[in-house]
Amino acid sequence: xxxxxxxxxxxxxxxxxxxxxxxxYVEESGNKDxxxxxxxxxGPGGGTDPMHRRFFDPAIYRIVxxxxxxxxxxxxxxxxxxxxxxxxxxxxxxxxxxxxxxxxHVFGGSWGSTLSLAxxxxxxQRVRSLTxxxxxxIRRDEIQFFYQEGTxxxxxxxxxxxxxxxxxxxxxxxxTAFYKRLTSGEAAVEAEAARAWSVWEGSTxxxxxxxxxIARTAGDAFARQLARIECHYFVxxxxxxxxxxxxxxxxxxxxxxxxxxxxxxxxxxxxxKSAWDLKKAxxxxxxxxxxxxxxxxxxxxxxxxxxxxxxxFARL
Length: 316
Hints:
By secondary structure, this protein is of the alpha/beta class.
């Protein structure tokens, strides 16, 4: 069964000024003359990790990773101004042009699947293939299921910790209540809310609870970027025209792009219904359901399916 490729280091690192406010970090690894692939990380606000280079055969692929606005090594940290889906789509296109890439493979999981689809429907002629994991379409029902009621029925103990910063009177709309605190301008209030929000995601992302992942999501810098940026996107409905817009756009635009969808059966962050809906919208896409996995890209079955997909697309 496929596993992650060996650890590698970038052969090039760049910093691009993409607006008056934002500068983004970009790196290239693998084969500098190879088949280009761009990696869209999760969140929004999750940032890249060295592991992300390892989904691709470094002898074949020219691997492009970048930290989206406000997170990772991009600056300013956790900045919400000029930070929308369409800003990120524009950034990716600027990176492609700057690096002299004509067409590339597109890979993204969770929010990265959202951004991959948004990029592909905007620039379909630039996309060789789509490898998507843990499908997230930023529909209201998806956000409600994870952040309000749904996942809470499976993880009630972690949910009680998640809602602690929010007074009972405000718990009917948790996303709005968190956004109020995450943008309050009060450092202690923001930090408490960010940690609760981020740890909730870290606690529920794997089929089996991973204390190391929980500890990482509890870190101050990571929690701040993830919670502020995610909540900002959610209160703005992903900056899409209407609820369900992305699925409609994919259906009308992406039928001929080779696509593999990888979904953990027991994903309670981005439940399988969204992957199922996307598969129905794109009947030519390949859907791989991993029977013993949750949401995380770090689970064994998910890794196997993703590497199998990228190995296959390397020939396109």
